[in-house]
Amino acid sequence: MGQKRSRQDEIVRELAHEIVGGHRPEGSLLPSDAELMARFGVSRTVLRESLKTLAAKGLIQPKTRVGTRVVERTSWNLFDPDMLRWHLDCGIGLELLAHLSDVRLALEPVAASLAAKRRSETDVALLHAIVDRMEAPTASPEIFAAADLDFHLTVARLSGNPFFRTASALIEVALAATFTITTPVNDPTAKAASCAAHRRVVTAIGDSDSEAAAAAIVETIRAGAARVAAAANR
């Protein structure tokens, strides 16, 4: 069963990369089941399960007596973690991450504002501890990125609004990719500035200053967006 599942995953990933990467344009038909079965060396059952997965994610749509057609990009579920990974795998994720900054600017300032109104002393101490992890001299890019992600997810949770935490969970893969790509660890000046900006968020939340908390978290998002843009232009 495990081998069958693994083979299905491989087929899903390979076809998804072809579609997301543009090798199979929107509106085009996939090869017939017989051709795909021969290509991947699998049974009809395994192939059908793989195609069902792609259809569930909005990439393809099977039609009787027509075939399986690639769906328009506007219908793809970009909140799906696998979809985000496939875009990153294909090297076209930076554009999505830039768009993600717009989503974050719409959500996170409100979450930070609410967190400032509802926080406890324990919450503030937790946020300070996360920034301490970011500031640590021994923090590797991976550790810094993980702490950065933890910080923003924690602010969403401290808002007390379950919709903010759910929204953050939906885009967690993209957030993790953003923080990994834009980590400033290798630039001491940029790292210090990032940590200071995050510390200002905590200070504002600790002071129950909603406006300052919102403004401070906007600063962190815009700084990250600038690093994404710089990465895209390399």
From TrEMBL:
InterPro entries: GntR_C, TF_FadR/GntR_C, Tscrpt_reg_HTH_GntR, WH-like_DNA-bd_sf, WH_DNA-bd_sf
Domain (HTH gntR-type) ranges: 5-73
Name of one Pfam family that matches: FCD
GO MF terms held by the record: DNA binding; DNA-binding transcription factor activity
Acetylation as UniProt keyword: no
PROSITE patterns, alphabetized: HTH_GNTR (PS50949)
Keyword annotations: DNA-binding, Transcription, Transcription regulation
Keyword Transcription belongs to the record: yes
Protein name as it appears in the record: GntR family transcriptional regulator
SMART domains: FCD (SM00895), HTH_GNTR (SM00345)
Taxonomy, superkingdom: Bacteria
Organism of derivation: Pleomorphomonas diazotrophica
Lineage: Bacteria, Pseudomonadati, Pseudomonadota, Alphaproteobacteria, Hyphomicrobiales
